Amino acid sequence: DADVTQTPRNRITKTGKRIMLECSQTKGHDRMYWYRQDPGLGLRLIYYSFDVKDINKGEISDGYSVSRQAQAKFSLSLESAIPNQTALYFCATSETNQGDKLFFGSGTQLSVL
Amino acid sequence: QKEVEQDPGPLSVPEGAIVSLNCTYSNSAFQYFMWYRQYSRKGPELLMYTYSSGNKEDGRFTAQVDKSSKYISLFIRDSQPSDSATYLCAMSGGNTDKLIFGTGTRLQVFP
Hints:
The complex is a heterodimer.
Chain A lengths: L3 E4 L2 E4 L5 E7 L5 E8 L3 E10 L2 E4 L6 E7 L2 E6 L8 E8 L8 E2 L3 E5 L1
Parallel strand pairs in A: 2-11
Antiparallel strand pairs in A: 1-3, 3-8, 4-5, 4-9, 5-6, 7-8, 9-10, 9-11
Chain B lengths: L3 E3 L4 E4 L4 E7 L6 E7 L6 E7 L2 E5 L2 E6 L4 E6 L8 E9 L2 E6 L3 E6 L1
């Protein structure tokens, strides 16, 4: 079984719809992250959480929100999806501070029409 | 200027070739350097991890860090078709507690 599980794997939605991407992990890590990946732009950090009561914005948080429901669960929401949010989204976890080794899920391909 | 620069490729080589992948960076405080491998439609997976300067070898893979030149490299010896993937460099350190990724280099190894 995967250590970091993302659902759904693929999602097609329409402009203006609210959607949620979910992530769960069995690694026991405190730190969780949401990234998006776009061709030519690489991985960009959306939000991250160092524990259940800690939520931090990344470099591209506008239009997104997150919820850390438990140590093992971190969900990403798009309140009103727009086409330029079409991307590959990754959840990741890590154990410690600097020098973190990130462990990624398999990703969610999101298409906003 | 981006903090981390990486040639996007694609890089196409024959099986058995030696591959060199590189990244340059601007933040002299970076101390942790990593290479991730990402297969198509999969999440990145950690391939090599280096702290500070020097070399690290793991099988056919060697990671080099030259902090004086702000330059890191990943060498793949005896490349195989199964090495075909996108390789991302990543680094952190100083007052940057989050990983900064390069945009990735796409590698194709043909039989």
